[in-house]
Write a structure and sequence with these properties.
2 strands, 6 helices, mainly alpha, two-stranded antiparallel sheet
């Protein structure tokens, strides 16, 4: 179920980020990656099968007596720090262990994939969202970093 994606060809953004302070650039990259992961998460939640049973019926049906909640509410995005310069976001089904049975099937049940098709159809929108968030955050931070110099109009002189 795990699938990796990366964005390449964004050399201009890379140059701008390298010129920014390291912590600021990391925050911008993390927010962009999180935005893309959330697009994929929403697609998975929309495709996740729903039983229509309430909490009482689910707990009666469960042999352990535990109610892990409906599948679509268990789908989460978590951040994992790999190295000092690399961060990854994982989209998983949380405590909903039965999602594997639905996705791949069992001996007695045919597969009803929802996770993989949702990821496949939402990769391009996620990349687009990531790029938009990165561009917006870089523009915003550049304006904040420029401070009073950002408001100087062309052709005017100021004493600094």
């Amino acid at each position: 179920m795990a699938k990796n994606s990366s964005i390449s060809g964004l050399s201009e953004i890379d140059k701008v980020l390298k010129a920014m302070p390291e912590k600021l650039a990391e925050r911008i990259l993390v927010s962009g990656a999180r935005a893309g992961a959330n697009v994929i998460r929403k697609s998975i939640v929309d495709r996740a099968p729903r039983s229509g049973l309430g909490a009482d019926a689910r707990s009666r049906r469960s042999s352990s007596g535990k109610d892990y909640g409906p599948l679509h509410k268990n789908i989460r995005v978590t951040r994992r720090k790999i190295t000092d310069v690399s961060v990854e976001f994982a989209i998983h089904t949380g405590q909903a262990f039965w999602a594997l049975f639905l996705e791949f099937g069992t001996v007695k049940m045919s597969a009803r994939p929802f996770f993989t098709p949702a990821v496949d159809t939402s990769v391009q929108p996620a990349v687009a969202r990531t790029g938009k968030v990165l561009g917006d955050r870089i523009t915003k931070q550049a304006k904040e970093l420029s401070g009073k110099f950002g408001s100087i109009k062309k052709g005017t002189r100021r004493r600094i």
